[in-house]
Amino acid sequence: MLTVMLLAPGGLAASTVATQLPNAELRGTATFRYLGLPIYDAKLYTPGGAPFSWSEDFGLQLTYRRNIKQKALVESTLDEMTRQGNSGMTQAQLESCFQTVGKGDSYLAVSEGPNKVGFWRNGRKTCTLSSPGVKKTFMSIFLGDNTRSASFTRQLKGQ
Q1: pLDDT in tens, 24-39
Q2: Is the pLDDT of residue 99 over 50?
Q3: Rounded to an integer, what distance in angstroms lies between the CA atom of residue 65 and that of residue 111?
Q4: Which residue of 4, 7, 21, 43 has the smallest Cβ count within 10 Å?
């Protein structure tokens, strides 16, 4: 039983990708580090594994290697969007999506056009954010031109 519980988050996220983004295939993977410490492993899923494009829907899965409180997730997300010049999302919106994560927990974000992103935590839907340009506003944290780590972004995009 313990093995099933340990393996479930990744398996649930992968099946959620297939359900929410038909024809999705893994495009790239990367590990985000802060001060040398691994924070999360990321996987980018694109239609047919095609090169990343903002004009196509895609899925981004983060599997955490550390315990991170909800407040830290929300504040770091808002800080990063502000740093990149993207705004429009509120703390309350993000709090409805993000919960405290423990080692091995996964979040999956799947875009639905430019104005909607759905979120799943360990395979369970947490929220959908809907606002003009929300896909690029949120996903630029990981896939934009001004991320915290250009090498992370290149690896994630499979470049």
Answers
A1: 999 999 999 989 999 9
A2: yes
A3: 24
A4: 4
